[in-house]
Design brief:
single chain, about 500 residues, alpha+beta, Nucleotidyltransferase, domain 5, 2 domains, 7-stranded mixed sheet, 5-stranded mixed sheet, 24 strands
């Protein structure tokens, strides 16, 4: 029987699955790693250990667990956190840790300089996006400015999936969906690299553009020895983890919104045409002729990890969720600003700060944890309101990711946004979506087959609560009225 391998590298954990041709999972495995934070506002991974090392370990675990013949794997597809910035030398060796997506805010000066040089309107028109901490172009310029010694050795700038594909096939490639986050280096209208807007890097330093389900190459002999895969196995171009998550739950039609509960809340909504709004990110979707509008918070699951590690080291997430259920909606008047690493959509404010406001001696850990979950949900409502103001309210919300197991978080998000959420039967997420993309790449399935691979399991119904309607405007005001204090703290 044919099999398909999907593997995803996340912020804190990598996951992989093997499926058969019907979408049945025959093996799955995971491996944790850490996000490196060498200084406030920086976020990194080790490409060799965390990206490629996890891929090797998980693939070997899947093969051992399933007992299948590696030759039965018809294709491999990968995704990873993104967009990232990884400089490599002429042999493909990483020159530094990979700089992560929008949670890393080190290039704030470069964002300001490039925006002033190019102009916000030109950026939005040509690139589909204004420059934010999610943009890779400013991070490349940061490298060039601050590390000229490394820049002199840089042959290619890769993202996380590009590095995995290189290690598997020897090819330097990147999918259009990821490349659109390299602003101002990608022209959204012509769907090609653009070097006319700013002098950031040479054309030969960027990978070759492909669509996500195109075959980038085949497993080399060296990669086969390391991973246990069969030499010659087709490998797709790959994509960002959130896009693979969206595929995994059947995000198919304009108006479909995928809400990913991961280290961040990340949202993808498909659109019939380009959606132009400076607060949202735009990219071609995974296949030619389709569009996507994206948004994301800076800290979500990452904040729940922080809370557990520092304020509840004796508890696991299930215990914390059960305790949060014992606190009423509104956490008894406690607000949490979840901006513990600045904020992305729609604030795009790297200086935003996290806070608990309204604490008194009657509040306990359950109230504080509930306030964290509700603060994330209120920030999520700001995103869904942004889509509505842009003329594209979601027609259907599909929830996915590890955070969907956190019932008070999931329910609070529906109650605060007023949106029902569909949760599908398979919650494996991006790795499962990658297995499906691998099957698509070799023509084994069509796009609608995902609905049989992963049918809907339940709908979380929105139940408005007066406490939320009272607190949400106060949440918005708390940020605006403390923004100058937050900025001054960095001084």
């Amino acid at each position: 029987m044919d099999h398909f391998l999907g593997l995803d590298i996340g912020t804190f954990e990598s996951k992989g699955v093997l499926t058969d041709a019907t979408g049945r999972i025959v093996a799955q495995a995971s491996h944790p790693h850490q996000m490196i934070v060498p200084r406030p506002g920086w976020a990194e991974h080790r490409a060799e250990q965390d990206w490629w090392g996890d891929f090797v370990q998980i693939t070997r675990a899947l093969l051992a667990q399933s007992g299948i013949d590696p030759a039965s794997i018809r294709a491999v597809a990968t995704s990873a956190i993104g967009p990232c910035m990884l400089p490599v030398d002429g042999t493909g060796k990483p020159l530094m840790n990979g700089v992560l997506y929008g949670v890393d805010t080190r290039a704030s000066a470069e964002i300001a300089d490039l925006t002033a040089e190019i102009g916000a309107e030109t950026l939005l028109d040509r690139c589909g996006n204004t420059l934010t901490s999610q943009s890779v172009g400013p991070k490349i310029l940061w490298l060039r400015r601050t590390h000229p010694d490394l820049w002199a050795q840089t042959a290619k700038i890769l993202t996380s999936t590009s590095y995995l594909t290189f290690r598997l096939t020897g090819a330097y490639v990147i999918d259009h969906y990821t490349a659109a986050n390299f602003s101002p280096l990608y022209d959204i209208a012509v769907q090609d690299w653009c070097f006319a807007l700013a002098d950031i890097c040479r054309p030969d330093q960027l990978p070759r553009l492909m669509w996500s389900t195109e075959i980038a190459g085949h497993v080399t002999a060296d990669a086969a020895r390391e991973t246990g895969l069969a030499e010659g196995t087709p490998v797709t171009c790959g994509t960002i983890d959130a896009a693979a998550e969206a595929v995994s739950v059947g995000t198919l039609s304009p108006g479909d919104m995928m809400m990913m509960y991961g280290s961040t809340i990340f949202i993808i909504q498909l659109a019939a045409q380009r959606l132009t709004d400076p607060a949202l990110w735009h990219a071609p979707w995974l296949y030619p002729g389709q569009h996507a509008a994206m948004a994301g918070l800076a800290t979500s699951g990452t904040l729940t990890h922080w809370f557990r590690d520092h304020l509840a080291p004796d508890a696991d997430f299930a215990t914390l969720a059960a305790q949060a259920q014992g606190s009423p909606p509104g956490a008894r008047g406690l607000l949490c600003l979840p901006y513990f690493s600045g904020e992305r959509t729609p604030l795009h404010d790297p200086q935003a700060k996290g806070a608990f406001f309204g604490l008194n001696l009657t509040h306990g850990r359950a109230d504080m944890y509930r306030a964290v979950l509700e603060g994330i949900a209120m920030a999520t409502r700001q995103i869904t309101e942004t889509y509505a103001r842009a003329g594209a309210p979601p027609a259907r919300v599909l929830a996915v990711g590890g955070g969907t197991r956190n019932r008070p978080w999931l329910q609070a998000t529906s109650d605060i946004t007023g949106l029902d959420q569909t949760v599908c039967a398979v919650t494996t997420g991006a790795s499962f979506g990658n297995a499906f993309l691998a099957a698509r790449a070799v023509g084994a399935v069509g796009p609608e087959a995902i609905q049989s691979w992963n049918p809907a399991a339940e709908v979380v119904t929105a139940t408005p609560d007066p406490a939320y309607e009272r607190l949400y405007p106060l949440f918005r005001r708390l940020y605006t009225q403390t923004r100058d204090i937050a900025a001054a703290l960095d001084g």
